[in-house]
Design goal:
The chain is α+β, with helices and mostly antiparallel strands. The protein contains 7 helices and 10 strands. It has a 4-stranded antiparallel beta sheet with strand order 8-9-7-10. A two-stranded antiparallel ribbon has the order 1-2. Helix 1 runs antiparallel to helix 3. The two termini are about 20 Å apart.
Length: about 240
């Protein structure tokens, strides 16, 4: 299965002038399906970086590229098969210049620097939550040169000393929306109306996530997402029981 994520629990600068870092929100829904669709962009350069032959595989995206679900990274990983995660990370960032940590077995337990494909530190396991996700606004592919993100170093410290993940994720999403928009984003008010524990977002894409206890998504929640302007609602469980 090709891994994916659904935005990030947190993303921002590690200090006012520090690197961009993130904690990914892991998703069990495959990002791509192998054997159909289109040729993978950057496949030849990726295989050259790994020193393997290009198998000329085709992949079909399960999520729209640019939505913040790791489609581009997952497409490259689908070509490579099983490889050492550090080698895969170096090859991915050589092609993409900003890559998600999907080559690692538990990517949501890493504080990850996507522009350098480096693990900053390892984190505790996130608890299990049920996610009701959707997409708001147009796809926005990551610009590797974009570092205009809020400072979240305080949120990372608070998470490391044991504060709850969801309130911190909600604050990270709030800071990004305040800085980067869109001003019309309904996710915060929607989370409150549906009784969610909080929310998260793709900090450079259109994915939005409402966070509930497992089994706690209310009836009619998908319809409420659509009415608020979000498309493609999905449900999945993330984290560890």
């Amino acid at each position: 299965m090709t891994p994916s994520h659904f935005g990030e629990w947190m993303q921002g600068r590690l200090g006012p002038k520090g690197p961009v870092v993130l904690i990914t929100l892991a998703c069990p829904i495959p990002a791509v399906r192998v054997g159909t669709g289109s040729a993978v962009p950057g496949a030849a350069a990726f295989c050259a970086a790994l020193g393997i032959e290009d198998p000329d595989r085709r992949v079909a995206a399960m999520f729209q590229p640019g939505a913040g679900c790791g489609t581009s990274t997952a497409s490259l990983l689908a070509i490579a098969g099983r490889q050492d995660p550090e080698r895969l990370a170096r090859a991915c960032v050589a092609v993409e210049r900003a890559t998600d940590p999907l080559m690692w077995p538990r990517p949501d337990m890493l504080l990850w620097a996507p522009r350098t494909a480096k693990i900053i530190t390892r984190l505790r396991r996130p608890p299990a939550y049920e996610i009701l996700g959707g997409f708001y606004g147009p796809a926005t592919p990551t610009n590797p040169d974009d570092i205009d993100f809020p400072d979240i170093s305080d949120l990372i410290v608070r998470y490391e000393v044991g504060e709850g993940l969801v309130p911190l994720a909600t604050e990270s999403a709030r800071r990004t929306t305040a800085l980067r928009g869109p001003d019309t984003d309904p996710t915060f008010s929607l989370a409150r109306r549906l009784g969610a524990l909080g929310h998260a977002r793709a900090h450079t894409g259109s994915a939005r996530a409402l966070v509930f206890p497992v089994g706690g998504i209310p009836n009619g929640a998908e319809d409420a997402l659509r009415e608020a302007g979000l498309s493609g609602p999905v449900r999945f469980v993330t984290g560890y029981r």
